[in-house]
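SEVERITY: medium
COMPONENT: batch folding queue
REPORTER: lab tech (J.R.)

DESCRIPTION
The queue accepted two submissions in a row. Attaching both inputs and their returned structure tokens so the on-call engineer can compare them side by side.

ATTACHMENT 1
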Amino acid sequence: MTTLSRPETASVHIQFDDNSLLPLLFGAHDKHLARIEQQLEVSLASRGNHVTIAGPADAAKTARTALRNLYRQIKNGESVNESVVDAAVRMAHDDAPGPGGGLIQIHRKRIAPRSKAQGRYIKAIQEHDMVFAIGPAGTGKTYLAVCAAVEMFNAGKIDRIILSRPAVEAGERLGFLPGDMQEKIDPYLRPLFDALHDTLPGEQVVRRIASGEFEVAPLAFMRGRTLSNAFVILDEAQNTTPTQMKMFLTRLGENSRMVITGDLSQVDLPPGTRPGLKDAVETLDGVPGIRFVRFSDADVVRPPLVARIIRAYDGASPAQEDPA
């Protein structure tokens, strides 16, 4: 008879030097502590400026790292909510660097990675001319790219931000939508507008778009152009054809950056059409100056239920095959 060994248990203590910050760290009615307990299956007990963590040794150490990183964020003036707590646990569990590694600074707002993959992604964008981000929705691919673009624009490193998407989604074509061309494309491009508005005041976004410094347009509008001194983002790239992808990538001009994001499990192209994103990954692998960053459901930074939904769909039936 085989006897299963029980996980090593531990009792870990942590002390904080500023009692006035603890209500922000613990949350109302200690809800942040309860969230950490639930995710790591540990027990947290607070007394004064001390917290005792009891449970499996590895989980207790992860909880301690998460609490220390959250406390550091609060001391730096950052707010903490449930999603930030989840991110701290994820980063501590991944043994990833804390908030000090891979930051984007927009005015007084500091955007820190919320997963190990996000940290690699931010670093890749800062160091490479072309970055492909591939993985499921909710992992921050587009949002972080827009934040990085705004940071570079504010620093005077580029003159323009160009956001684009292929004009295909769920079998619809723009020609079937009501209104003139602008009215047709605005709803389709709304997620890109939303990302801009989340990083800058609305009136500034409107002014920059009117001046041509910010551009949000369908992929077809990129044909024949050379995009210099710009940060260019192609979103939903899984819905490009290989010809469209090659056209887009060769628009790269002097002093420009490109970020291409997509999810190969959400292809809306006609059956039998090879996705341009899949083709580019296979064709450009190993090309100097290009970096590929892959995300998984473990990197989803929306509510935990979203990650569980993604895993349920992936496990309910064989994964969707990418068209050959």
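ATTACHMENT 2
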Amino acid sequence: MAQGKKRRFQGREEKAIRQELERSLEQTRLQLAQAYAGFNAVTDQELVESFIYEIQALQARYSYLLRQRKALEPQAAPVEGPQPSALPVM
């Protein structure tokens, strides 16, 4: 019976992690949109540069969060049978 409780706890914990990850992804998307809007609205060179750095930092965070989400996805079973060959380069 202890195994069943442990699995349910792990399932809830994983669900909470997934939800937090999705919230972080959405928040980062919104921050990116705001940073792009700010970038498009300013003309001062220093502000343009600061928005560029902010956008790059947010893109790095977004990529990290996407990798974390992908790591939580169950792995697909390998496809059996012949694999398609690569197309020749011309």
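NOTES FROM REPORTER
The chain has a mean pLDDT of 84.
No errors were logged for either attachment.
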